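#structure-requests
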Amino acid sequence: MSTIEYLQPGEIEKRSFEIISEELLQRGIRLPAEEEMVTKRVIHTSADFDYAETMHFSERAVAVMEELIEKGADIVTDTNMALAGINKKALAQFGGEAHCFMADENVALMAKQRNMTRAAVSMEKAAAIEKPVIFAIGNAPTALIKLYEMAEQSDWKPAFIIGVPVGFVNVEAAKELILKTDIPHIINIGRKGGSNVAAAICNAVLYQMQRASEGDTK
């Protein structure tokens, strides 16, 4: 039988991360230092330790994402749920904004006219943003496919892709397309993911940057 721990609200997250660290050690898993906090926050969000094995980071992925945010990059999501989960106040400290175009009337109209998903059309709209964009995709594999197609067929390419859509249809294939590119990325291989995971990855990097700016390297 599990034991109840009586903790103050501010102590709950700290204790959760302690438990995650303990369980990773028990499983014999040592995460690369640069990737550690991102993967742990994803596990914290999902309570799923499979992410310790399936998260894939391109070379210097976290450092590249930090550099983009420091330069004021925006974040574009494929769901309003992911948008709601991102700490926009933390992002704004570095000059960035978060967007989701899925509910825009013109996106819905164009998707219907062209027989495309709104997620794909919203990626085209996001590509017109005149600054570096980090794409945080947690739901729609068609968004990843569209990003891949635009990068392959034009001179434009995303500054960074977080590719963690969840599901069964085209999810794994869409992730594999991004893995073949030289676009900086964080991808969860397999079917798992979700809007909460996409937001967690963004927040993990943002919180790490906040702590560094405040002189806290813990």
